[in-house]
Specification:
There is one protein chain. This protein is α/β, with parallel strands linked by helices. It has 2 domains: 28-93 and 129-278 and 407-458, Alkaline Phosphatase, subunit A, CATH 3.40.720.10; 280-400, Gyrase A, domain 2 (2-Layer Sandwich). It is 28% helix and 20% strand. The chain contains 13 helices and 22 strands. An 8-stranded mixed β-sheet has the order 7-6-8-1-9-20-2-21. Strands 10, 17, 18 and 19 form a 4-stranded mixed β-sheet that branches. A 4-stranded antiparallel β-sheet has the order 13-14-16-15, with helices on one face. α1 (10-17) runs parallel beside α8 (197-215) and α9 packs antiparallel against α10 (239-262). The termini are far apart. Mean pLDDT is 93; it is low at 1-26.
């Protein structure tokens, strides 16, 4: 493996940058807290049950919990996957309102063609509710994101270091000039030269540290991905998963150290949450093979060539779309019966039942399926249509999410520490809907028509 120069000196270099003066903010409104800073860190796929495992070494997170507030569990949103729940965390509303149902935007094919998911569409095409960073920007506060999602070209982020950054970006150029990154390293985020997720998480942490040290944003959104990637491959509860979670704690500690050394610590509040938990996978169900067996889909190898109905898999959930509108009334009852009898499928719901799960109906959002499938424990869905086997042993895919958010194994974590947070508060459960309203309160903002609530029980009165 090629050695990556400079990675071991990330913290030293970034802490040195903390002496750089903050950029001039835009004029803030009277109600906005222009002297306050809030950081929201998400540890992708961190299950609440592992937070409760005292054998897992998490010194930084546990110190945050002692000095601030922590919940025993956090209820997430359906579908329990990454982009959906990150969007709930910053909007305070369910997917029925904010509109995100996939890790990207589902784009319909032709009448007999499968849909595809495009991740890099503009945020305004994807997110239909105001976010806390939109509100902060419009109030004259400064905003930043590192590896956040559903945030392509939002127009309301001052400093961005994207999931796939480029050497021509504003922050990237600054980091190159500071000697923190080299231009060729940006190719390590994708393509044939892509490096490990541990390197990517370390580099995203480096960027978050740099942005806070130099620019002092009022709101910083920061997403670490390695715990999710590791648990998909090796399964939750594995030695690799525990190592990934401990490493994420180490990276959180790097950012906390920069905040403390910056001098802005007394005016900074840090939230740490996860977007979903994880379940173990032993077998994989291929709903598109079931549709092929029913004569409703044709495939040439891995390519779906024709489909009257098609499945889009999201781990523990799959959406079924009937492309042939003329046959929908005929096909839906038959498909419900067929999927309900199939191995590995726990529940089959009509798409119009989406609102009972916090999701839209098919009429409200073109990405919503006509049917919703949930997998049984130990099973997960995949979208491939090749081959004849509808169920197979899972290899190299030993954990996933997407199952009902009511499943305790999907619970996420919630920790808050710093300015305005009462010390030593233990909460039995919060909802991820509550995070955005609480952040907004700290920044002197208000989420319009929020479905979550401000967690007043963890907040000290202003000025104390």
């Amino acid at each position: 493996m090629k050695k990556i120069p400079g990675l071991l000196s990330i913290v030293a270099l970034t802490c040195a940058a903390s002496a750089v003066a903050a950029a001039e903010p835009l004029p803030a409104s009277k109600s906005a807290a222009a002297d306050q800073h809030v950081i929201l860190i998400t540890l992708d796929g961190f299950p609440a049950r592992f937070w409760r495992d005292e054998s897992l070494p998490l010194p930084n997170l546990r110190r945050m919990a002692r000095e601030g507030a922590a919940a025993d569990a956090m209820t997430v949103s359906n579908p329990s996957i990454t982009w959906i729940n990150h969007t709930t965390l910053v909007t305070g509303v369910t997917p029925r309102r904010h509109g995100v149902l996939f890790n990207g935007l589902l784009l319909r094919g032709g009448v007999d063609q499968p849909p595809r998911i495009e991740p890099w569409v503009d945020k305004e095409r994807l997110v239909f509710a105001p976010t806390v960073y939109d509100l902060a920007y419009r109030a004259g506060l400064t905003t930043a994101e590192v590896n956040w999602v559903a945030v392509t070209r939002p127009g309301t982020i001052h400093w961005s270091f994207a999931e796939i950054p480029g050497a021509e970006g504003k922050v990237e150029k600054e980091m190159i000039a500071a000697g923190l990154l080299r231009p060729e390293q940006f190719g390590w985020f994708h393509g044939r030269d892509r490096k490990s997720m541990t390197w990517e998480d370390a580099t995203w942490t480096q960027a978050a540290c740099y942005i806070f040290a130099k620019h002092r944003p009022n709101l910083l959104l920061f997403h670490l991905l390695n715990p999710d990637s590791t648990q998909h491959q090796y399964g939750p509860g594995s030695a690799a998963a525990y190592t990934a979670l401990a490493y994420a704690d180490r990276l959180v500690g790097d950012l906390l150290s920069v905040v403390e050394r910056s001098g802005a610590g007394p005016r900074t509040t840090v939230f740490v949450s996860s977007d979903h938990g994880f379940k173990k996978v032993a077998k994989v169900v291929y709903p598109n093979v079931l549709l092929k067996q029913a004569g409703l889909l044709a495939a040439a190898g891995a390519k779906i060539t024709h489909c009257d109905a098609v499945a889009v898999a999201e781990g523990g959930l799959a959406f079924i779309y009937v492309n042939n509108a003329a046959r929908k009334a005929e096909l839906l009852p038959a498909l419900k019966q067929r999927f309900a009898a199939a191995e590995g499928i726990a529940r089959v719901l009509d798409g119009h039942e989406g609102p009972t799960l916090g999701m839209p109906t098919p009429e409200e959002n073109q990405g919503m399926g006509d049917l919703i499938l949930f997998a049984k424990d130990g099973y997960a869905f995949k979208g491939e249509a090749a081959g004849d086997a509808a169920v197979a042993v899972s290899l190299g895919y030993l954990g996933t999410h997407g199952y009902p958010a009511s499943d305790p194994e999907l619970d996420g974590i919630f920790i808050a520490q710093g300015n305005r947070i009462k010390p030593g508060v233990a909460l039995p459960r919060v909802a991820n809907l509550d995070v955005a309203p609480t952040i907004a309160q700290l920044l002197g903002l208000q989420i319009p028509q929020a479905e979550g609530r401000v967690l007043t029980e963890i907040l000290r009165p202003s000025g104390r």
